[in-house]
Amino acid sequence: MSVLFVHSGEFAWGIEFTLGLVALGWIGAMVLGTVLVIMHVSPIRTVRVVAAGYIVVFRNIPIPVQMVLFIFGLPLLGIVFPLFTSAAIVLVTYHAAFVCETLRSGMNAVAVGELEASRSLGFGPFGTIRHLVLPQAFAAVVQPLGNVLILLVKNSSVAAIVGVAELTFVADKIAIEEVQAFAVLGGAAVAYVVVCLVLKRFVAFLEYGVVFSK
């Protein structure tokens, strides 16, 4: 276990990078996922088809494949991003599809009568979604969205395969240097569990607040 204390600074650096990826990935996925779900219920057929196509593509391609294609494919088109930025973008595009589907299931919580009342009050489609549908959808899927967040934490380790110095990359590097794979990767596993448990408690707190406010 002493190897963990010797390299505690590097571990802290890796955890910081992981948390940065998670924060950027989650904010981006929530924004893009919300846009996608609005597109998915749009009265314009073409917009709905675009949203549905995005979800089919990004949900069904494994995230390691998306990461490699993004990192090594875009430079062939003359588009180059820093590795950290590229990893964050892939996390956003992949998890936005899951956020969209989760929100879409939450929309089922809105009663038909409420939609009719909204129309009778003069709200258009956008006003109804903004003021009636989305607030109820978010409130109904706090826990499922929390599951997507925890999935994102675990998937952030995929950034290691393209050289982003997040927790898994740092742990793998130290394990090779010290020839102590079990102790070092075990320490990384404990760190992931702690991060996920903290986020789970935070999501439970949010869910309690939503239930209490109803």
TrEMBL record:
Any one biological process term the GO annotation gives: amino acid transport
Chain ranges of the ABC transmembrane type-1 domain: 15-203
TM annotation in the entry: 12-39, 51-73, 79-100, 148-170, 182-203
Gene Ontology terms: cellular component: ATP-binding cassette (ABC) transporter complex
Membrane topology according to the record: Multi-pass membrane protein
Domain of life: Bacteria
InterPro entries associated with the record: AA_ABC_transptr_permease_3TM, ArtM/GltK/GlnP/TcyL/YhdX-like, MetI-like, MetI-like_sf
Record carries keyword Transcription: no
Recorded family membership: Belongs to the binding-protein-dependent transport system permease family. HisMQ subfamily.
Protein name: ABC transmembrane type-1 domain-containing protein
